[in-house]
Design a protein that fits this description.
The protein has 364 residues and is α/β, with parallel strands linked by helices. The protein contains eight helices and eight strands; from the N terminus they run E-H-E-H-E-E-E-E-H-H-H-E-E-H-H-H. Helix 2 links the parallel strand 2 and strand 3.
């Protein structure tokens, strides 16, 4: 029987119906748009553009008020925005990573400031990266590269238009054009190869997605450790609701059952036992060995972050990615690198990192 069939769906039975509903809806009880009082500087002290403030003209102020109403009425359900009554030039937004992408279930925060001549000039946008560059358009230093912001070249109709462009348009563009399922092809000059049949580009894209997911998980932990002001409750509730989604996906990726971003469906439990069944089967791992090693190191830290946040793990069968898994990885690296002329430098580096972490030795 030919079992080399690409897996397209993972189903897990586990958790209550209430848990499943919360995984599929925006964070409960948190308004998508809200105006924050800034009587106390504490509410904006961590905003990237807190200083200096921009003095807005009456016409700019009027335009900002109009944009606030647009945001309040038209935000997609996966985008949340806070504005500040004492600092009309500032906004903060968070985008929930879209399903079917390596960004799924993650949170991506952006600090925004409108210039004094707004909307003649586009807003300034800073991505809270926590030091990770997980997209060609989002730099580790917080820069956002987007034609609509005039921070990247583009056709005239892609650039900021003072009479038509809005902050809502900026946020939706980031969500749809930046946080997509194949971010590798956002690199300049690579876009034309996104539908290429050349396996070289497909493999590079898959490996890029693996790196992105690792960085997205690291970003999750950073956000839980230090949530942005005015979003503390949102962050905590979001990850309590999404823990099952994230960990089940991690399990499937580490086991090689699914590519990063493959659809994974969680169904309500019929019994108390958690069962994972693949909709199709494969004899080929759908994720790379390097990814499995990196994810194996990260997994227990991610679980700890969720537990410390108050997440329930009752519906998830946790993987053992601790000492035994890492020792097996060490042995595999060594067995594939016995011939010194065939040594893979990156694998050797991973081996030494794992040996230091686990105390694993070669023996006699």
């Amino acid at each position: 029987m030919d079992m080399d069939i690409e897996l397209t769906e993972i189903k897990i039975e586990g958790g209550s119906q209430e848990q499943q509903e919360s995984n599929q809806t925006p964070t409960r009880g948190f308004q998508q748009f809200d105006i924050i009082a800034t009587i106390e500087v504490n509410s904006i002290r961590d905003h990237h553009y807190v200083s200096p403030s921009q003095s807005l003209s009456p016409s700019s102020t009027k335009h900002i008020m109009k944009e606030w109403r647009i945001l309040e009425k038209n935000l997609p359900e996966s985008i949340f925005v806070r504005v500040y009554e004492g600092r009309l030039d500032l906004l903060r937004a968070v985008i929930i990573g879209p399903a079917g992408t390596p960004y799924h279930d993650g949170l991506f925060f952006f600090d925004i400031q409108v210039p004094s001549n707004y909307p003649a000039s586009p807003p300034k946008v800073y991505y809270r990266s926590f030091g990770h560059r997980l997209n060609p358009n989002l730099y580790a230093n917080g820069s956002v590269c987007l034609s609509l912001l005039n921070t990247w070249y583009g056709r005239p109709n892609q650039k900021w238009n003072p009479t038509e462009s809005t902050i809502l348009q900026v946020l939706v563009s980031i969500q749809g054009l930046v946080l997509n399922d194949k971010p590798y092809f956002n690199e300049p000059g690579y876009g034309s190869y996104s539908n290429s049949i050349d396996p070289t580009f497909k493999n590079k894209s898959l490996h890029y997605n693996e790196d992105v997911f690792i960085m997205s998980c690291k970003t999750m932990m950073s956000i839980l450790n230090k949530p942005p002001k005015s979003f503390e409750e949102f962050v905590s509730q979001h990850f309590r609701d999404r823990t099952s989604n994230i960990l089940v996906a991690c399990n499937a990726y580490i086991n090689g059952q699914a590519k990063i971003g493959d659809p994974i469906i969680i169904t309500a439990a019929k019994e108390t036992t958690t069962i994972i069944t693949a909709a199709t089967e494969t004899t080929t791992s759908l994720t790379s060995f390097t990814f499995k090693v990196a994810a194996g190191f990260l997994y227990p830290k991610l679980v700890d972050s969720f537990v410390n946040n108050g997440s329930s793990l009752e519906s998830v069968e946790l993987l053992d990615t601790s000492k035994n898994m890492r020792e097996n990885c060490c042995r595999r690296i060594l067995s594939s690198s016995r011939d010194i002329s065939n040594v893979n430098t990156s694998k050797v580096l991973l081996f030494y990192q794992m040996r230091q972490s686990t105390g694993f030795t070669l023996g006699p």
